Amino acid sequence: MSKSFDVVVVGGGPGGYIAAIRAAQLGFNVACIDDWKNGKGGPAPGGTCTNVGCIPSKALLQSSEHFEHAGKHFADHGIGLSDLKIDVAKMLGRKDTVVKQNNDGILYLFKKNKVTFFHGRGSFVKAADGGYEIKVAGAAEESVTAKHVIVATGSNPRALPGAPFDEENILSNDGALRIPSVPKKLGLIGAGVIGLEMGSVWRRLGSEVVVLEALPTFLGAVDEQIAKEAAKAFNKQGLKIELGVKIGEVKSGKKGVTVAYANAKGEAQTLEVDKLIVSIGRVPNTIGLNPEAVGLKLDERGAIVVDNDCKTNLPNVWAIGDVVRGPMLAHKAEEEGVAVAERIAGQHGHVNFNTIPWVIYTSPEIAWVGQTEQQLKAAGRAYKAGTFPFTANGRARALGDTTGMVKFLADAKTDEILGVHIVGPMASELISEAVVAMEFKASAEDIARICHAHPSLSEATKEAALAVDKRTLNF
């Protein structure tokens, strides 16, 4: 007999599990279906983010940063080390432990909030009386019915044509997190978030890293001034980035991978590497969902078509996160999950795309919210800009990390903050102040007038806001 629920969420990633918890908090009888398995075949909710994305990559970034500090920077603090080495197996084991802690935490939250969890792949069967029938293909096949369905099935890595992922030599983000030993030479195709973060991990551990990027500009979505500052830092670290390339044939063999490509001048080149990480974007995941069974509409990219409220073309079927339009960010999916649960309850869920922060967890970190200077110029909007370098920040000097700056963009007439861009230490944390400020329609003057703790990195934010009016105090 089919089990009946008010809300069934298909997918247990950041968007899905948060949507399920919020719906349960609002008094609905909720189920969440997720197919992800751990190494023992047990449930591993949390999606790409928890299992092969945000969480494990940050664990490896942290480990590799410790290693680089020990090898290159501890001496500056009077700390002497000899015979420094990296135990990659132990590093990967710690990463796996961090992942499992997050998996177990989500299962605990389901139990705490009385969300019924089904371990298996969810797919539409048919429209049922007042709702939808969904099949769960797991250890034992089950059937559930739902008045409301929230599809949160995420995305998959995009492979290079003619060079499928084997996760041994040609790696997606999944394989990139499981390289068993430090490759002598590592190639990356795609200088986006995943490429730069994974390149940073293995470069710090001793790999020679070469990044090939098809676009002619580095980090085209980032404010140009910030991107140039970041590129300068990466180049100094030894991360080799080639822009404007055209990838040709990719051959994988016992000795590694050979990539034929044309450089920006059109000259034929060959790159030979031990491992190749491909990070050229992600594609919406509807594998096994069986959308045609109920007439769920997809667009030409394979994404589920939704309106501004995440409603699909079907009554009471919603979709959120990477499987719909908008940025493929875990926190964007979370916000949509909460908003949809609240809309089902008759409330007014809210997601403001203009105040969704973006972060690249390299060193230096890169974070931004709102519009870039090039976007404002293209729109013909009059603006004022203010910057403040971390070289003039006392806490950054004490940390020994003075790379980068904070940049404010504000409306020329009203002084409303239009964008904040940071490259430097702890940018991922500092950006939150800007997000809050922009949500409340704050002016640069508002941030400039707020007392910030001394000494702190956040003082650079205050000083950049002061710089909009050309009145910095420490530079």
From TrEMBL:
Domain of life, per lineage: Bacteria
Reactions mediated catalytically: N(6)-[(R)-dihydrolipoyl]-L-lysyl-[protein] + NAD(+) = N(6)-[(R)-lipoyl]-L-lysyl-[protein] + NADH + H(+)
One Gene Ontology term of the molecular function aspect: dihydrolipoyl dehydrogenase (NADH) activity
Pfam families named among the record's database cross-references: Pyr_redox_2, Pyr_redox_dim
Keywords in alphabetical order: Cytoplasm, FAD, Flavoprotein, NAD, Oxidoreductase, Redox-active center
EC number per UniProt: 1.8.1.4
Cofactor note (record): Binds 1 FAD per subunit.
Regions that span the bilayer: none
Family the entry assigns: Belongs to the class-I pyridine nucleotide-disulfide oxidoreductase family.
Name by which UniProt lists this protein: Dihydrolipoyl dehydrogenase
Organism of derivation: Piscinibacter gummiphilus
Gene name in the database record: lpdA
